[in-house]
Structure formats: C-alpha cells, structure tokens
Amino acid sequence: MGEAVTAGGRARERTFSWAWPAFDLLYLLGMFVTATVRESGRDYPGPELTTFVLVSWLPLLRRRRYPAAVLAVVAFVEVVHIAIGVSVPPDPTANVAMGAFQPVPLATMAAAFTLAALVPGRRGWAPGVAASCALLAIGIAVHGRVLLATSFVAFDLALMAVGAGVLISNRRERVARDEHDRQTEIRGEVVAERIRIAQDLHDVLAHHLTLVNTQAGVADYLLRTDPAAASDALRDIAGNTRQALDELRATVGMLRDSSDGDPLRPTPGTDQLGELLDGFRSAGTQVSLLTTGEPVKLPVGQDLAVYRIIQEAVTNATKHAPGAPVEIGLHWQRRNLTLSITNPVGHTPGFQGPGTRHGLIGMRERAVTAGGSLSAGPTRTGGFDVRASIPVHTAQEPPA
C-alpha cells in the first residue's frame, strides 16, 4: 500500500511537471514588475538591476532539487543587491520609497519557502530564518535609519515565506503519519482476523476429530457384539465428518470472495447448540443443558463466541475425561450472560492428561473479544469448571 501511495505521488508529480516552468516564468515576470513599480511611480530597471533580477532568479530553477544551496546563493545575491545596488538620496529629508529594495526579497522568499516545505524540522526553517536576518542586518548596516522600515519589510516577507513552508511541511508529515497509522491499523486487523480464523479452524477440527475418534472406538467394539449399533456409530462418523467439512468450507470461505453466489454455511450460534450437543451425545458423552432467564438474540460476534466456548469446553472434557458427565448452564440476565461448563466429578480412569492449554487460551480470547471474561480451573470435588461472563447486547442494540 505504501508503494502504491508513493507511485501515486510520482504520477501526480509527472502530471503537473509541465506547470513548474510556467510558474517560474511567471515568477520572473513578477520580479520584473516589482522592480519596475515603486511607491513613487514607475522606474524601469536599468542594466544593473536587470542583471541582479536575472542572477537571483536563475538559481530558483533548481530550488526543488537543491533547496539549501539555492537559498544560500539567492540570499547572497540579494544581500549584495542591498549593499551596492540600492541608492539613497543624499538629502535625509527626501521621500524614500518603501520599495527601494525591490525585487528583494522575492528570490529569497521562493527559496526559503521551498526549503521549509521540502525539509522537515529545523533543517528546513532555520536557513530561511538566517537568510531573513541577513537581509535585515545588511539593510540596517548599509542604509541605517533611512531605510529601516524597508529593511524590516524585507525581513518580515522572507520570514512569512518560511512560515508558509513550515505549514506545508507539517501538513505533509501529518498526512504521512496518518497514512502510516492507517496501514498499521490495517495490518493489526489482518493479524487479528487471521488469529480468529485460526481459532475457528482449531475449534472445528478439535471438536469433530474428537467425536470421530470416540465413535470409531465405539464402532470397533460394537462390531464384535452388536453390528447394528456399530452401523449406527459409523453413520454418526459420516455425519460428523460431513459437518466438519461444511464448517471448514464456511471458515475457509471467509478468506475468498463470495460474490460468485456460492452459499456458505451460516456462522454457528446459540440456536445451533442442540445440534452441537447431539453430536457429543451420539459419541457417548452425557451432556445436560440448563437455561435460566429469557434468552435474547445476540450479535454475530458474541453469539459465535458463546458457541465456540461451549464447543471447546465440552471437546476438552470429552478428550481429557472420557465418560465423565458434562453440565452446561446458560444463565440469561438483562445485561449479562453467565456461561458454565462443568465436569461435576473427578477424572475418570481414562483421563488423558492436562493437554497444551491452547484450548483454554482460545476460549479466554474469545470471551475477551466479545467484551467479557473467562475463568477455568478444578472444582473442590475434583472436577473441572469453565465459567464465562458475556455482556448482553441484542442484535438491534449498540453496546453502551
């Protein structure tokens, strides 16, 4: 994206490159007009003043490539102009034109503005301020009080050009900083989305593979004792693998453009908990669900978080404590949903160890992403308990 912005800037520079020569020529015309028109009337420039105008203007043609060097050259030329090119009437009571220095400081103004606009910070504005002070100092030193007001006018004009350049530079820096912040935010959102999709893939695979593994063991045992029940178990395996493929297709489908009209499986939520728990029950897990309060329709993000937390918690219970019952509680309140998944008894002899704890980390992240919290740990009776608190905002109600 940064490269695209840079390329766009270069394209604009090429598009308007024809305007710079035209502007430079108009600026030269303006310098000659300024050198001609003075407070007391028209005074057409002679060869000496014409030479000073051209010598101070020519370096400006390279000011965008060598801004500091050009400022130094034109400031020197205009200092020399003030020192030897400006004549003061010998009579101190004579009317002295305010524009006696003209076209000074037009060249210094253009160079100082360009440097301050192109170079950020002190390196951009300090040389322009120094050039302004040089014009003021030479005017006072050579012409004293007679042209004091004119010296200050030249100083003020050059200083105003520096200030205008600083404003342009600050705006450019602010735009670049905002663009950098935007790119950083986009990259953060991309990483967060990848993590979320990875969590979805982990939950889907862990859940369905655990069920398939359990059902395969049941089918292997029943083949020798009850072929009809073994056939039911094999059909459950087929159903779980088909559902796993559907969910994987829906999750991976979020990574591509769905504008081709290919329908994707809806994001799972609390309204699909019955189907989820039936899959566990078909694998032999005793799962009970207790709901209190008045359920409401949650936004997609919170609804998915509740579904995935229950899915992961029951999957962990089935994997690490096979045969142990699982009790699920959904306690709806006006502003909060309390979720509990509990193994009320200690580990069965088939306990398979504590695992990697990646599932607990994923559940906690889902709860935090939904605006809530999650805690997990052993119970006093030797079982295991997962509790989550999710703030309730209906699909039509924005978060407070």
Automatic annotation (TrEMBL):
Catalytic activity: ATP + protein L-histidine = ADP + protein N-phospho-L-histidine
Pfam families: HATPase_c (PF02518), HisKA_3 (PF07730)
Keyword Membrane: yes
Ranges for domain Signal transduction histidine kinase subgroup 3 dimerisation and phosphoacceptor: 193-258
Transmembrane segments: 18-38, 68-88, 100-118, 125-142, 148-168
Swiss-Prot/TrEMBL keywords: ATP-binding, Kinase, Membrane, Nucleotide-binding, Phosphoprotein, Transferase, Transmembrane, Transmembrane helix, Two-component regulatory system
Keyword Kinase belongs to the record: yes
EC number: 2.7.13.3
Residues annotated as domain Histidine kinase/HSP90-like ATPase: 304-392
Record-linked InterPro entries: HATPase_C_sf, HATPase_dom, Sensor_HK_TwoCompSys, Sig_transdc_His_kin_sub3_dim/P
Molecular functions (GO terms): kinase activity
Enzyme class: transferase
Name recorded for this polypeptide: histidine kinase
Organism: Kineosporia mesophila
Lineage: Bacteria, Bacillati, Actinomycetota, Actinomycetes, Kineosporiales
